[in-house]
Specification:
3-stranded antiparallel sheet; 54% helix; alpha+beta; Arc Repressor Mutant, subunit A
C-alpha cells in the first residue's frame, strides 16, 4: 500500500469508516475471537459480523485462522504499519492531488468493469476487453519485486475472486513471469500484444 496507489488506501479508509467495524477491530486487537463471540459482544447478528469481517479482511486489517468449523479472527498489524507509512509525510499525501486525474484517464473498458469499490465485476469474455483489464491489474504489482504465489493470489483476490484465471492469464500474456513458485512483473516491452 503506497500513496501512489490511492485505490488501496481508499479501500482501507472505507473499511474503517463504520462504527461496527471499528469496534470489531478493537475486539480483535486484544485477542482472537470467533464470529459467534464477536456477534454476542456487539449485539449483532452473525451474518452482519461476517460481512464486516470480510470487508476488514479485504483491506487486510484482520486475519483468519480456521480451527475445524470455527473461524478465528485477529488483528493484522502489518496493514496498520503499511497505512502509516503510506501517509507518513506531507510529500506522500501530496501525491493524492494527481491521483484523481490518473484514475479519470483510465481506459473506458476498465472503468466499465470496475465496481465503485475498485473490484472487477467479471472476467472479460473477449480478448479485446481482457487485455486492458490485465494491464490495469498487472500495474498493481511493483516492478522489481518477487512475489510468492500466495502474495499474487492475495493481490488478485482484492480485485476479483477468480485468482487462478487471472493469474494464468497474466502469465499467458507475459505480464507476469513465474519460476519455481515465484512471480515477478515483466517489462511492458515483453507483454504479448
Amino acid at each position: 500500500m503506497t500513496a501512489e496507489k490511492p485505490a488501496l488506501l481508499l479501500q482501507f479508509v472505507k473499511a474503517l469508516a463504520h462504527e461496527s467495524r471499528l469496534r470489531l477491530l478493537g475486539l480483535v486487537a486484544s485477542r482472537e475471537h470467533s464470529v459467534q463471540q464477536l456477534a454476542a459482544l456487539l449485539s449483532l447478528k452473525e451474518p452482519t459480523v461476517s460481512h464486516h469481517l470480510s470487508l476488514l479482511r479485504e483491506a487486510e486489517l484482520v486475519r483468519l485462522r480456521r480451527d475445524g468449523n470455527t473461524h478465528w479472527y485477529g488483528l493484522e498489524l502489518g496493514a496498520l504499519s503499511r497505512f502509516a507509512r503510506a501517509l507518513a509525510t506531507r510529500e506522500q499525501l501530496q501525491t493524492f492531488a494527481g491521483a484523481r486525474a490518473s484514475i479519470g484517464d483510465e481506459n473506458r473498458t476498465v472503468r466499465n468493469y470496475l465496481t465503485p469499490e475498485g473490484r472487477l465485476k467479471a472476467f472479460p469474455a473477449t480478448r479485446k476487453k481482457r487485455r486492458p483489464i490485465l494491464i490495469w491489474l498487472v500495474r498493481q504489482f511493483e516492478d522489481g519485486r518477487r512475489y510468492s504465489e500466495a502474495e499474487v493470489n492475495a493481490l488478485i483476490e482484492r480485485r476479483h475472486h477468480d485468482r487462478e484465471t487471472f493469474r494464468r492469464e497474466l502469465v499467458g500474456y507475459r505480464m507476469l513471469a513465474r519460476q519455481s513458485g515465484v512471480y515477478w512483473r515483466m517489462p511492458e516491452t515483453e507483454w504479448a500484444p
